[in-house]
Amino acid sequence: MPPKRQPDQSAPATVSATGVAYEGPERGRDPRAQAGEFLTTPNGVRIPDTDHSLKAGRRGPVLLEDFHLREKIMHFDHERIPERVVHARGAGAHGVFTAYGNAAGVTRAAVLAEEGLETPVFVRFSTVLGSRGSADTVRDTRGFATKFYTKEGTWDLVGNNMPVFFIQDAIKFPDIIHAGKPHPDREIPQAQSAHDTFWDFVTLHTEATHHTIWNMSDRGIPRSYRTMEGFGIHTFRLVNADGETSLVKFHWKPKLGVHSLIWEEAQIAAGVDPDFHRRDLADAIEAGAYPEWELGIQVMPDNAEETFEGIDLLDPTKIVPEELCPVQRIGKLVLTGNPTNYFAETEQVAFHTGHLVPGIEGTNDPLLQGRNFSYLDTQLSRLGGPNFTQIPINRPHAPVNDNSRDGFHQHGIHEGVVAYKPNGIDGDAPAVADAAHGGYVNVPREVEGEVVRGAPASFDDHFSHAALFYASLSADEQKHVAEAYTFELGKVYEQAIKERALTVLAKIDTGLCRAVAEGLGLPAPEGTPVEHLAPSPALAQVTGESYPIEGRLVGVVAGPGADIAGVTALREALEAEGAMTKLIAPTGGELSRDGATEVVERTFVTARSIEFDAVVVAGGAPQDKDVKSVVLLLESYRQLKAIGAWGDGADVLTATGIDVDGPGVLTADSAGALAGDLIAAMGRHRVWERAPLVTASQVPPAA
Q1: Mind naming one GO cellular-component term on file for this protein (predicted)?
Q2: Is 686 within any annotated ligand binding site?
């Protein structure tokens, strides 16, 4: 575990998942919690022996009357519930959302409108395609689902780290997931889209083009959940206290900026640390580097056409560029607590796009309306029945009186004989609430039209927004997109699918199409790229902007003769900025010199480049080259990370083949002098100036 920092006293406190105060012998304790000094059965009967079955004689048969054996085995046999069909691989955290209050003009939802109101939340991040046992760092869309336990009921904002989706209508959701999942004959490849069925579908069903190019970009392999944007995907309708409406899109903006992994890092991490993202999230929270996002909205007029600047707001494969409609920040999310139990919280949490509160409504987006059915239906299979909202992690923090009864896993003990309305026996209780009493009253709107299976003509544009996205990226990001397409299509066996994919790329960008065709050894088809809106700089990750380094990790390579006082000084300077260090040495234990001592946290055997955001060689480090330390330094150099050294530590870099005068290679006489430059370099995430000098297959030029 990382070293703990004293938490910021101003940070919001983590809220219990249950929200229940128990007035019993153990005041304040949830009666469903596991507690007590002695081992018991599920019914609370204390057990004297849990190592031996009850037998007829020590060598005799096991007796059916052994209720403890049967209960223990029965529960073990049913410990696993069906995993999610999609988003099975996930990680979660508790936190608090604080409203700025500036959204009161567009919504009466207290969670967004009341200045300073703190609402407890639980957030679950996930991949889409892989099973629960798959790796975190695969190329895939990431889920970003937030459950707000508001005083008006539960609101679920169920989004992704990409603002668009593969399909425009939910009726095609089984098709895209069947195409993306492992082939049914061999159940491979796991958690990957680099195979025939996926590319067969998305090249025939070209409305998937925009989402596909986001997946092929660096957004498909985020550096951390903490450095992901989140999007509500759909257009929602907000209603203010006067009944006025606006159409909005939701955005999560990370405090640490939007950063991604290099492809080589993602591949290494999948083998070395398949839990890379969940470990990063948990360790950051444990260390007090609480992840933060601001919630923003793009506010657009609620016109009859439900369009904005010619963009169909009901089409989930389209975006509204931020340059056309700026994102207004309306609140802050801070994650402050790790789950106590993964299954009880992260696995059992149930999200639903239809969980809305007064002041927030859906729209006619056909994907959203289908999701409203799918999410609810899914819980019946996964969580065993209709009472899944009574599971502590799903339980609302607002009073519930729904007249529902019975069913699997009913925890409530209902009193009286009335469970219907109207009733005369119980004074017609419970009462219904109008808008003045906080009731969820939909804004009246006209609905008309012929009953038809179809879509608006505007849904036929499948390429202009994909072209807009690609044109908005930096040159380095565009290069990564071409490499991703080349890799993925290179895994496809059917020649016709590759050729069809190239015809799609020809409609996006001629240079992209040619680069991928060259990589595949195929001719680039003729094609004229579509016209698109002006590039949106907000879509590029590589901007040169600097961000806080909270939760970042620096590896410090040191040997028996290292300047330990310098190591301590560097660690303290980085910790003042919220970053952490790990000392890397040939063997474990401690390193001491001149009365200063530091604990070795990684050895050359256990350290790998993917763990660190920068690597520094301490002064006084040994000059002999250990092959594993060489690999660590060269990988970090190739992955465009800041490399540093002080004193004669620079000689180690030179001996490794790293040019100490090259971009992003920082040297100084002392650790203190190095710290400032290192912090600045880490704030830019990567040394993009080094990119032309290296590829994944090259070593850096010798000094």
Answers
A1: cytosol
A2: no
pLDDT in tens, 345-395: 999 999 999 999 999 999 999 999 999 888 888 888 899 889 999 999 999
Q: Which of 43, 68, 75, 87 is catalytic?
A: 87
Which homologous superfamily is 463-539 in? Catalase, four-helical domain (1.20.1370.20)
Q: What is the pLDDT of residues 227-238, one digit of tens each?
A: 999 999 999 999
375 marked as binding residue: yes
Task: Tell me the H-state helices in 21-129.
Answer: 67-77, 110-113
Q: Is the distance from CB of 197 to CB of 179 less than 8 angstroms?
A: yes
Mark whether 87 is an active-site residue.
yes
279 assigned binding-site residue: no
Question: Is 445 labelled as part of a ligand binding site?
Answer: no
Please spell the DSSP secondary structure of 452-468, one letter per residue. -S---GGGG--SHHHHH
Among 214, 294, 239, which Cα is nearest to 108's?
239
Please enumerate in sequence order all residues whose Cβ is within 8 A of that of 327, keeping only pairs 6 or more positions apart, or say none: 251, 253, 296, 297, 298
Q: Is 408 annotated as a binding residue?
A: no
What is the CATH architecture assignment of 90-188+222-394? Beta Barrel (2.40)
pLDDT by residue (tens digit) across 404-455?
889 888 988 888 898 888 889 988 888 888 888 888 888 988 888 888 888 9
- The architecture of the domain spanning 553-693 is 3-Layer(aba) Sandwich (3.40)
Instruction: List for the chain the helix, strand, coil content (%; round to 5).
Output: 30, 15, 50
What average pLDDT score do residues 46-51 get? 88
Catalytic residue among 68, 160, 259, 277: 160
Q: Which two tokens stand for residue 222?
A: 């985020």
Report pTM.
0.92
C-alpha distance from residue 675 to each of 575, 614, 618, 635 (Å): 11, 12, 12, 22
**Domain-by-domain residue ranges, the chain?**
90-188+222-394, 463-539, 553-693
Q: What is the pLDDT of residues 84-115, one digit of tens each?
A: 999 999 999 999 999 999 999 999 999 999 99
